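Hi D.,

Good news: the full-assembly prediction came through. Inputs first.
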Amino acid sequence: MPDGKKIRVLIAKPGLDGHDRGAKVVARALRDAGMEVIYTGLRQTPEMIAEAALQEDVDVVGLSILSGAHMTLFPRIMKLLKDKGMEGILVFAGGIIPDEDVPALKEMGIRAIYGPGTPTGDIVDFLRQNVQ
Amino acid sequence: MFDRETIEEIRSRRSAWEADTIKGNLKKSPERRDVFITTSSVPVERLYTPLDVQDWDYLRDLGFPGEYPFTRGVQATMYRGKLWTMRMFAGFGTAEETNARFKYLLGHGETGLSVAFDMPTLYGYDTDDAEAEGEFGKCGVAVSSLADMETLFDGIPVDKITTSMTINGPAAIIWAMYIAAAEKRGVPRAKLGGTIQNDILKEYIAQKEYLFPPEPSMRLVVDTFEFGSRELPLWNTISISGYHIREAGATAVQELAFTLADGLAYVQAALDRGLGIDDFAPRLSFFFNAHNDFFEEIAKYRAARRIWARETKERFGARNPRSWWLRFHTQTAGCSLTAQQPENNVVRTAIQALAAVLGGTQSLHTNSMDEALALPSETAVRIALRTQQIIAHESGVTNTIDPLAGSYFLEALTNQTEREVYDYFEKIEKLGGVIKAIERGFFQRELAESASRYQREIEARERTIVGINDYVTEEPPSIPLLRMDPEGERKQRDRLARVRAERDNEAVARTLEAVRHAAQGQENLMPHFIDAVKAYATLGEICDVLREAFGLYREPAIW
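Then the structure:
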C-alpha cells in the first residue's frame, strides 16, 4: 500500500448460516490493526457482496461461511467480482472449509483460507504483505 | 452456616496463612500467573473458605433435591432414579440418511432423538427454492413436506421415544408435521413426548435464524404454548436456549442472564394472552452450553435452577411446583473444539459432559471430535455417546445427588453467578425489556465484545488452548470424515416433485388460505398448520403465506 493509505476491507457473510462470531472477531481485529472495515451483515447474496465491494471501493474482500455452501457460492462471487472489473481485489475466506476444497478455491483466485484456530495476527500480516 | 466467632477465627487464621505460609512460599516459587481467570474471564481466588459463603443459608439457598429452590436438582432422586436422556443432535442429507443415523445411535444405546435440520429448512424454504441453492443437507436434514417427516421417523417408535427438534422460526409448522406423521401411524398426539426449540428471542440475539419480526414471532410461540397445554401435555413447547448465545461469544453469566431474561419474556407474553401460568410453565424447558471451565459451568446450572424457581414463584405467583422447575438439556461447547489435533476434543467433551452431569442436566448431547472439520462420522459420534455412558456407569458421579454442594468455591461461584445475572436483568429492564434490547443492538454488542476479548486472551497467551497456542504440532489431522450421498439432493428434489404432483392441490390451496386468514386474525395457528401439512402443503409454501402476512426481519449488523 502507498504510505498513509489505509487498507479497506469488506467482511461479507454469504449463504444462510448465522454463525457470525468469527466474521465479527476478524472484522474487529483488522480494524484494531488500523484497517478500514465494512461488515455486510448476514445472508448476503453473491450479487449483494460484489455490489458492496464495488460501492465501497475496497482493496480486500473477506468471505466467512460455515454452512458448507462455499463451493456453490464462492465461484459466483469470484465471477461477479471479475465481471465488475475487480480482479485486482484480494479475496480471502474463513469458516468450516474442508482441506479437500482448498485447491479448487485457490484455483478460482481466493488467495488464503483460514480455518478455526487461526490467530487474527496471521490475517493482518497476510493482508499487509499482499495488498498492493 | 457459621457462627460469628468461628468466622472471626477463620478470618484471622486466613490472614496469618497469607502472611506466613503463602508469603514465604511465593518467594521460593511464584505462582504461574498474576491473575487466574475462568473461561469467562472471571478472576478466581487462590483459596475459598467459609469466609466466602458467610451469609449462606443451607435451607434457604440449597434445600433438598426435588424441593424449592431446587439448587440441588429438580428430581428428588436425580440419577439414582433415572439417568439423563442421552440425546445426540443428528441430521444430514436426506431423511433416509438421517433415519439410518437415528437407528444407528439408538442401536448403540442412545435414549432420545434430536433432529438437526438443514439451513433452508431452518429458514422455512423448500429444497427446490432458489434461496436453498448449495445448502441442501449440509448442516442437517432437509424437511420440506410431511413426506420427508414420515421418512425421517420411519420405523422409529414415536410413542415410546422422545424427540427434540432444533427448529425456531418455522417451529410450529415442523411440529405440526411431526404430529401429523405420528397420527397417520395411529399414535395420538396426546401420547407424543419431545421438544421443539421454538426460542425465537435467542435467534435475534445469537443464532440469527429468524424469519419474521419479533411481534408475530412471539405470537407463534404463544400459540404453541396454548395448543400444547391443551393437546400435547407431554410436549415441551419451547427449549429456552443459552447454547447459541454462548457459542456466539457470551460469557457464562451472559449466557445465563440472557436466557433467563428470554424465559421471563415468554412467560409474560403468555400471561398477556390470558394463559394461566401453571397451565404452560411446566412445559417450558431450557438448553445450556457446557464450556471448558468445569466449576464455572456447574455453578451456572445450579444458579439457573434457583433463579428460575424464585422468579416463577415470587414474581409470577406460580403454584404448581412443576412450574418452578428449570429442566434443561446440555450440549458440550462446539466452539471449544479445535480443528487441530481433533482427537483431543474427545477429552474436552468428556470434561464438559461431566460438568453438565454434576450440574444436574436432564438431557445431554456430547459433541464428536470431528465437528470443527465436518459433520460427525459414525465412529466419532459413537465415541461421543460412549463418553456419556462411561460417565453414567463407570465414574461413580451418579451415585449421589449434587455431590459438589457445600464446596466453598462452588457455592461462592453459584452465588456470584446469581448476583451478576440479576445485574443483567436490571440492565435489560432499563432498556425496556428483551425485545427493545434486541432492537437497540444491546445483545449483539455484548457478545461481540466478549468474543473479541476471548480471542485476544488466546493470542496474548493469557489463556492456553492446547494445540492452538501451545503444544502445537504441524501434522495435519488424519481422522476419517463423513461422506454424504452425492445423489441425496436429487433424491430429495424428486420426492418433493412427486409430492407436488400427487397431492390434492385444491386441498392445499384451501388449507393455505385458512392459514392466511388465521395469520391475519387472532386465532391459534396450530390447527391450521396441521391441516395444511396433512394436505402436503410444503414448509416453504406455508412460510411464504406467513412471510406475506407478517413481513420479514432484518437486523442491523453490530460489531
